[in-house]
Amino acid sequence: MALAVGIDLGTTNSVVAVATPTGVEFALGAAGERIHPSVVSFPPDGGIAIGVDAKNLRADYPTTTIYSAKRLIGQNVRSPLVQLALTGLPFTVEEGANQQPIVVVGERRLTVPEVSAHVLGHLKQCAQRQLGQAVSDAVITVPANFTDAQRQATKEAGRLAGLNVLRLLNEPTAAALAYGFGQHKDETVCVFDFGGGTFDVSLLAVKDEVFEVLATDGDFFLGGDDVDRAIAEFLAAEVNRQLRLDPRRDPGLMARLTMAAEQIKIHLSEVAVAEGTIDGLTYEGRALALPFRLTRVQLEDLIRGYVDRTIELTRNVLTTANLPPQAITEVVCVGGSTRIPLVRRRLAELFGREPALRINPDEVVAQGAAIQAGSLSGHLFRGGGMSTRDAVPTAALSPLAHGGVPWAAAAPPARPILLDVTPASLRISTAGGFSEAILDKNLPTPIERTRVFTTAHDHQTRVVIECGRGEARRFADNEPLGTLILEDLPPRRRGEVRIEVTFRVDTDGILMVRARDADTGIAREAALTILGAPTREAA
Amino acid sequence: MAWSTAEVLRWLDQVEPRADGRSHFEWLELGPTASSAAIQGAFHAIARTRHPDLFRTALTGGDYDRLVRMYARVAAAYAELRTPEGAANYLRQRRDSGVPFTAPGAAEPPPAPPSAPAAAAIDPARAMNPRALGLYRRAERALAAGDRTTAVLNIKLAIAADPTSALLRAALAEVTGG
Fold first, then answer.
1. Staple B38 to which of A106, A431, B159, B173, CB 3.0 to 4.6 Å?
2. Which of B58, B71, B76 sits opposite A449 (nearest CB)?
């Protein structure tokens, strides 16, 4: 029988895991790696490299090696934040149909879901090779603050990779699941997820098998990449000072500086001073070497603004949930950026306790996704029981063989119940340029709510319902989601035609909008067209 | 523990015909005096027994969608009632608009004593098995006599007799004040 895997599809790195009757097992790459870089490279001699192999080509082929695709997936290419993100990327991105970003690699034009599908396909292969079985189903994790378009584009990527996406699971929720699953906890947990490209913070009440998200917040454009870039800019300034040339004109040189920056960052999480020489740099064909010295204190000055922002969002989420920091019984750190000592220190100051140490910040999200995949597919918990008779008795399925995480108990515990929330308010435009929320932020999902509106003009036979996402009263200050048009209304005085607008958010966090003429009883439903979302005939 | 698919289908048949007319408290299988803790307990109890994820493979397409839609109504009810301010607002609005809470004719929410088990909105006889019902009635009598300890004990025994009853869990949360 085909297996269901859990996939943490990250901005920089991805992890794939499967829950077995004895524990969670990670699928390794060809070189034994547990963490697979989310990188796809197209070398000029043809072919394609994915994962570790692709990352190694990044400096040689900076314009045809695609990374950080997650920053672009499901985004409107015209959005100012995307335009800003693009200035730091050495490859070319153009505008495609429906304002979606298109990655241009030589003659090829790829949608972002196509790029991510290559990464997902690679992960699927790794899992199949290790398990010796076909993998057809997957739970894929997404940042809690992902929008509708981003979620749909991620699902599309899964479909293109030949995966049946059982569920899109929010990353902090997945982490909490891995932390509390089968432990019979009664706790209020803060999940602080500072990854490569995104930041999320969620508060959850964990009661036995129920994981209820109380509130969530985040910043989609804040992550370890920003830290790397801050260090790379420091190095670029050093190049300019010591070698008297402008490295920003050479994407290959900048790519190497960014890769060195990542190493320096990791090093400075262990020691107080990083000192050495970066070799193998080239500028216009000339070989260069850059001596450097960076202390942890200097690094902390460079990145203080980013860390302040994560702490501010964490305070916000506590306020939203109406909880004091002391009410939090455990802090779960997710994402490589939580290894930065400054981050740990600020968290300890805020909560008065050190973050949980037994959590592996790189693997915990995939672990939670694997548990949810096992649960949804019914492989792990057949009939709600705890039987292991469905165990697949292969050597590869022993979690200990590959350093996996065994269950605390002898058998998998009861099926988890995940109660997640809407990450942002979903609203419609009303008269005078204002907006009205149909669904607020932090409501439990799946959820459905209907509100009744009336026409604004006499003899109005057509209403245009503009939908948006955000917290602003002025509609234009929110992120536009799309437009729904209801036509052939009976011509009456204004206010006499009542229109029911129903918003439903499903278990994947995807929005469905329905508008209905309440009086004639004729249900007219229309699908929402979401800007930036992939269309089948895209590029 | 999750309900059987037969139990879920029976619940859907019961709630769907009057889905628009049910009050938020009815969706949560509670009476209008329930505390915040009881409201959270009731929502968790419903999630434990019939969250759509538990029936992803067990129910076929159409019935699974029915479950998602009805569960989404429960979630909407919980969203509004989960804070004390939200619940108070909701009660005020209902009172102002004169919408009856339970059966037609009951214009005001029944003034139940604060310590009584909530969930009077639904018939206990339908919310648990007969063995549990006997124990639940005993708990009601004990409460009326002011004997909270005996009431708690009997509700716990009733839960042991019928662990699937959301009403019993809510009643326990209500009586123990959390």
1. B173
2. B76
pLDDT digits (tens, 9 = 90+) for A303-340: 999 999 999 999 999 999 999 999 999 999 999 999 99
φ/ψ bin of A346: left (φ > 0), alpha (ψ from -120 to 50), beta (otherwise)? alpha
- Note the pTM of the prediction, 2 decimals: 0.81
- Chain A residue closest in CA terms to B72: A447
Q: What is the percentage of chain A residues whose pLDDT exceeds 70?
A: 90
The pLDDT assigned to A217 comes to 93
Per-residue pLDDT reduced to its tens digit, A190-203: 999 998 888 999 99
Q: Which A-chain residues 317-346 have CB contacts (< 8 A) with chain B?
A: 322
Element (H, E) at A517: strand A511-517
Half-sphere exposure of A523 (CA within 13 A, CB side): 4
Q: Are A439 and A425 in contact (CB under 8 A)?
A: yes
Residue B175: which pLDDT band, with cuts at 50, 70 and 90? confident
A182 neighbors A151 (Cβ within 8 angstroms) = no
Q: How much is the average pLDDT of B82-98?
A: 86
Write out the two tokens for A399. 């979690």
At residue A220, the pLDDT reads 85
Interface test with B, best of A447, A449, A511 (most B CBs within 10 A): A447
CB contact under 8 A, A210 and B47: yes
- In a mutagenesis test of the A interface, which of B8, B16, B40, B44 is the best target, namely the one with the most A β-carbons within 10 Å? B44
Least-confidence region, from A201-215, A408-422, B61-75 = A408-422
**CA distances (Å), A426 to each of A67, A161, A335, A458, A468, in order?**
31, 30, 28, 28, 6
**What are the beta bridge partners of residue A480?**
A468
Whether A417 sits inside 8 A of B51 (CB atoms) is yes
| B44 reaches A (C-beta below 8 A) | yes
Per-residue pLDDT at A172: 96
B19 touches chain A (CB under 8 A): no
Q: Assign 3-state DSSP to chain A and report helix, strand, coil percentages, each to 5.
A: 35, 30, 35
